[in-house]
């Protein structure tokens, strides 16, 4: 799969790059994508929810009324769940929602996500963005040049570039990630995926091709 390299102003250059067909031209496995996204979202959950059950409620343990002859149901404790202020039945407890997935499945999911975006022509390769200082205006101008202003944009870099990251931090719909941190969830969420020219080489290493 061959793509033209664009400059940051959205104009075509004379350079072209070959994207590996083993990544961008495979038949997408939607179930693998589902599992990887499910794991990603599960790992985002704090799992710190907690409610008190009847054993943890502060209150008297004295039997609140006699067993028989009251005309109502028997009750032994004010901490019972049927009373206001009582403990909760089977309430939430702190837990870890994360689960494990095989490495090969996660790689298949990322390949499938990239293949889907390639099929929708939502993959672009641009020249490396060189910034001497953080400039949000530069990142905004790039999104305008490609006609994706206001849409969810994923910009993939080869190395961690602090200036590029800081330039996008104030933009709600623009996310900058290192190629090694590429996640299926980020790819699927983006309307357009931009690879810096130098990051393309890192894809083969990421997928061990």
Keywords:
209 residues, alpha/beta, 7 helices, 15% strand, Ribosomal Protein L4, Chain: A
**Helical proportion, percent range:** 25-40%
CATH architecture label of the largest domain: 3-Layer(aba) Sandwich
Number of strands: 6
Q: Could you give the order of the helices and strands?
A: EEHHHEHEHEHEH
What is the number of helical segments per DSSP (H or I, 4+ residues)?
A: 7
Mean pLDDT across all amino acids: 90
Which structural class should the secondary elements be placed in? alpha/beta
Family: Belongs to the universal ribosomal protein uL4 family.
InterPro entries: Ribosomal_uL4, Ribosomal_uL4-like, Ribosomal_uL4_dom_sf
Keywords: Ribonucleoprotein, Ribosomal protein, RNA-binding, rRNA-binding
Pfam family, one: Ribosomal_L4
What is the compact description of this entry?
The chain is an alpha/beta fold.
Characterization of this structure:
With 209 residues, the chain is α/β, with parallel strands linked by helices. The model has no long low-confidence stretch (mean pLDDT 90). Strand 4, helix 5 and strand 5 (174-178) form a beta-alpha-beta unit. Strands 2-1-3-6-4-5 form a 6-stranded mixed sheet. The protein is built from 7 helices and 6 strands; from the N terminus they run ββαααβαβαβαβα. The protein folds into 2 domains: 2-46 and 101-206, Ribosomal protein L4/L1 (Ribosomal Protein L4, Chain: A, 3-Layer(aba) Sandwich); 51-91, no CATH class. Part of the 50S ribosomal subunit. Residues 46-77 are annotated as: Disordered. One of its GO terms (molecular function) is rRNA binding. Belongs to the universal ribosomal protein uL4 family.
